[in-house]
Predict the 3D structure of the following.
Amino acid sequence: MSVILEARRLNKSFGAVTAAADISVGVQRDSVVGLIGSNGAGKTTFLNMVTGYLAPTSGSIHYGDRDITGMAPREITRLGICRSFQIPQLFDNLSVRENLRVGVGIAARCARAGGHTPGEAGEIDTFIERFNLGGYRDQLAGLLPEGVRKLLDIAMAVAGHPNLLLLDEPTSGVSADEKFRLMDMVMGALKAQGVTVLFVEHDMEIVARYTQRILAFYEGRIIADGEAQAVLRDADVRRHVIGEELHPGRAEAAGG
Amino acid sequence: MPRDRTTRILLGALLVLLGAGPFLPKWAMFMLNVSLSWGTVVLGMMLLMRTGLVSFGQGLYYCLGAYAAGVSYAKLGIGDIAVMLLASTAVTVAVSAVLGLLLAKYRDIFFAMLSLAFSMILFGLLVKTSELGSTDGFGLSVASVAGVPLAEGWDRYAVFASAVVVAFGAALGMQRYLDSHTGRLAGAIRDNELRVEYMGASVRRVIHLNYVISAVLAGLGGGLVGITIGHVDPEMAFWTTSGEFVFIAILSGTGNVLAPFLGATIFETVRSFAYEYSPNTWQLVLGITMLLVIVFLPGGLWSVFTRRRTP
């Protein structure tokens, strides 16, 4: 398997705060990787650096054999890295359909997606169906329930035909009994397209169920990297990320 | 309102106005002429507002367009309406393409004030330029349309017909544009620029393009007003002129390409009659009109037609 994304000695500091300290990591093509860590551990900073929203203080990021360090989000998206957001970033005054229409329209005009455009209208309908948004088709995005907003946000990231998809807390704000249904739907939709997925998640059940590999962040460093179950059992991870001392019961269950 | 219905209304209005033109009393033709020209300016503002930007400086392009037409006549001896309007277009494209590089970086009040500043710079320059008549401006006239000389007594109708055709073309073109992929990005940018960039489109490029389009429409409107009145002066770049365009834009609403023309016609009518019947309080009448629209029709006059459909 080839490496699709590689970070080399990434550092990022905001004044005295270190959000990324010497991060070196590679992600295999077609894998599903979970990013865990407490608030402020540097997970979202990592996503923001990969997508060009933040420039690293030092170090470099490579996508395939291209150095993408310092490129703008727009250029990186065009290369095939798309992302969803912790707080859904939608066009609130446009309907669900119009939101997707903008996304599909932009993607169709980027050279990369040139080959596979079976008509934009048809593609929009495919996304509406795949993400189960049919009941909300003509509703304004600003008036949707949070879980549906989350789905639409992810659907719009997928509409960009990513090779690498970054999801920032896909299940935050989604009710406990809906989160598995949501993740099944998202992962099912992605499997159909052959996408490498990197996702930030606080919910250990979700991480354990959907990822093959986990990166655990703590204070800007990666303190554990490996097969999902092994990382969840790791002593450092249990102390710093899962919070064993505070919630022994839950950690036990999550560690499985 | 469905798109094809808007197109039918536009086509109908084009034929009615062109046909009725020769029979209209002079004052009505003049008022319609000004309304159509101003509607064209406001159509451009509508595009900017849909993109989330309010310009307080459309007077810059309105005045540039008028002076370009005026200079064609007074300095170059060209009295052809089509050529004069082409001059308006060329000058506004050139200036807005350059200024847009800067303005596309700004939003909200900064965009509004910076655009106002540029219009006031033009005002200042024109006031100081004695070759162009300083504060008095200068007069112009028309002799032909696209090479066809105008028969005696038909010059007013020719100007009127030009305004009708330009307004019609602008409205139809705008409708097509708003329905295109790039046009649709306007609303997306207004709602969430970050997401537009993260989906791979350049926000600045779209804003720059929309800025140039709005400038050209302001320039055409200015050129038309110049040849309608037969005179241009620096007041056209003064901030109160730009303010009136903002006034009409809010009065009209951004819901449909017909709205700016409706708004401009009502504005011009209210102003003319208010000015005639209560010369000292006409601003008061306009102010109250605006107040009523904002309180009862926050979506502008056009929302009267769309209200029932939206819950």
Observations:
- Confidence is low (pLDDT under 50) at residues 251-256 of chain A.
- Chain A touches chain B through 26 residues (CB under 8 Å).
